[in-house]
């Protein structure tokens, strides 16, 4: 009851802060994204600038990790347990929030949503927010937000089949059915991703622990199923449900090429299910409610021998999460809009092994957040978005209420025709992971949340009858209370200030040819012995796209990553060499068919994304899409 009173008081304070003022018609609302039921429906609501990866641009990717790894300002590597190690502008994976249609995914005991295991089944686009995050996203997003938007069910076809084949018996087959009717729609899809292991570069020099050729222990078979159903009632109420399920029976884990370790996952499983409703409660007011349940289970094994017979560690893990998210939107005359809401998230973990956890051990975390956000036009062509969130975390071993403020302000202004300039500033937090709080040997239940004051200025400009597009961003992050190991325990010990710029130029002289170049620079000032790892100082992305008769497309992607630091399991730092990577893809459409032919890593570059973890060498891909 005490917690409920505090939450209601916070909501009342937020409404009082954000109400008031007048506004004029906003011409910038013409860039509303496609209608999907997500937490943030327009770029202006996000506060910071959104980077969009279109679903059509990643047809030769097998996972979300592959789809993101060539974008500047983003690092998507593979970690020591074959999990993704996502970084946005240097921020670490457990500081980044991953969502599907605005619903957060459970980040588990280690605080990481493994995007290398997320299928691209029925993906419309991937929204990436690297700067200050809107309070509408909730909390736990200090490093940024990745929001996966699924396709809206079509009304002109029923079935879609996609196949993708690569070297060494690597393939993915997806089958999805979707359709939109007058008052309801559905979507359901299944996929299987299978590989006998990826092929290393011919330039790779075998080590005592890695044979060369096919990467040791990189085989897997992953099954996915997902779907949704929503229905409109009486022209004012929408009700929907969506779900996802991922399963691997067994997965060997590749180790560092400089060590001899034999590890394995068994009975690996992830699921999520969500129930949402959108109600028109008045002529100018709508209410969005979400109920979310997701979880995971796996068995992690370590052996002394390559035959997987001499077992040394047997660890079982169960994770479960529950969330209730609410958002009330009120529009006023003059095109002013107010959002208020409350979010509650629960995460629980249960683990047992033959080492430090001889008995099943439970760990739980409760997170409450109240928020409010106001959007209005101050003067013609100047849009102001301002919001504030208040959150608190309650642990199993620490029930003190310690509110954290997350204010944010965003301004979008059209200084000259065909341009858009935005300024965003905000404070975002990320709470400690359950491993950092509860680890038997390293945990610290008194850890404070990590926080970062983030500032971003962005300018987009169209020139020469929109044939040239320029984008320019500069940003600064002042991050405090970073959590890491100190004297064998997790502590809030690091501070770091990072700054950088991202520049993009695209040129489309005609329908036949389009080219673009994107550059990112990142530097940081150490206030302690902290290093940004797996994050290059300079990165470049080049793309040339040709459109031939009969809508045949040909694309050349070239990526450059500068040298960067990487940390091994013993805490030592190593410098990884810079590299170029080139990919080609040919698209041939015919009626309702599309054929994809690709070559990845054309020059067969031998490179590491993390120390001791080489990436695939040259690869060939063949894909087919059929719409019925």
Automatic annotation (TrEMBL):
GO terms for molecular function: siderophore uptake transmembrane transporter activity. It is a multi-pass membrane protein. Its main location: membrane. Residues 45-145 form the TonB-dependent receptor plug domain. One of its GO terms (cellular component) is cell outer membrane. Keywords: Cell outer membrane, Membrane, Signal, Transmembrane, Transmembrane beta strand, Transport. InterPro entries: Beta-barrel_TonB_sf, Plug_dom, Plug_dom_sf, TonB-dep_rcpt-like. It is found in: Cell outer membrane. It holds the Pfam family Plug. GO terms for biological process: siderophore transmembrane transport. PANTHER family: HEMOGLOBIN AND HEMOGLOBIN-HAPTOGLOBIN-BINDING PROTEIN 1-RELATED (PTHR30069:SF29), TONB-DEPENDENT OUTER MEMBRANE RECEPTOR (PTHR30069). Belongs to the TonB-dependent receptor family. This is TonB-dependent receptor plug domain-containing protein. It comes from Cloacimonas acidaminovorans (strain Evry).
